[in-house]
Amino acid sequence: MRALAHRPFRLYFSGQAVSILGSWIQQVALAWLVYRLTGSAALLGLAAFAALAPILVVGPLAGAWIDRHDRRRLLMQVQWLLFLQAAVLAALTWFELIGPTLIILMSLSLGILNAFDTPLRQSLIPVMVGGREDLPNALALNAMLFNLGRFVGPPVAGLMLGFMSEAACFLLNAFSYLALLWGVAAMRLAINAKADGSVGHVFKEGVRYAIDTWPIRTLLIVLALLNVTASAYTVLLPVFAKEVFHGDARTLGLLWGAAGCGAFGATLMLATRKSVRGTLNLSIFCVLLSALALLVFPLAPRLAIALPALVALGFGISGANVGINTVMQTIAPDRLRGRVVSFFSSIRFGLDAVGGLIAGSIAALTGAPVALLGEAAILVMAGAWLVLQAGRLRQAVSH
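and the corresponding structure tokens:
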């Protein structure tokens, strides 16, 4: 918890805790709304794709834009827009004006805003903690918040959906953005040094760095393979909850919460790592664990077996993603941090969206279990390739 000794990070941590809880409640409610209205696994994948795909396209350019502007002011502006987006979604749902087309459009608008929000928050964290010394701990605590929200938010959403409506979940999320806005407004941070040149020039500089730096390039490849496969399970959880385990919204909350429990455990473990090499070793282990858990979950005959598999899957995915992010940010020079974070974010969430779209489409044809088993086979091969690269990666991060 040493990063919390810094007042700006404490303010961010408090506001982000509320904001993330609201975001997870909205995500579960939106998935349930889509499946309740349409019963379509393919549309679940399309909605998830619309919410995440913009970060794949806009994210890298957003990093270049961020490095050229005052990051704190930009983050406050984005929080206001996120508040407005969630409030409009709540109103459309409450007045029963929502339908598949509007859901996709609202998901797309959220994805575009998140393409700026995610790298903005990540690139401000080093400034909040005053440099590199407490950066790994701050990144782990930030991820811990995300996964704690993932653990608590879905069961809360399941209870809310049982007694209220999806619109109430969306409205709660709208007001949760104001907590982070308050935290950022209360900070006193020096204006960051701004990159020189056009957005195109700044972007190309970042791309050259990522391609020419072997550890960064390798970690980005692993990140892509992990998230285009393992992370796709989230899109299909409503199908498993209703069709495989014959449950309701509360079953969906349990499934999502189990994965969140594992993810929270992974970030707690990462917060105790004392070296970059230790973080890298844990990341490699987590990729392999994700492959194994993704094989077990779709074959689980009962909920009692599926829940532990999802705990392991959540642990593996979160541990690998957060660990890779920590290693990359430790390696990257300060002047390129915004762009490196944006590359991480665009691959982490953008390819998550692509994987979800593919998984949803395959599930519509073959069923959800078969779709996840195919994803697992690809991840097993990716894990084997990573093991072959592990020695060279350890040497690279030790220098």
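(Above: one complete record from the training split.) The mean pLDDT is 83.
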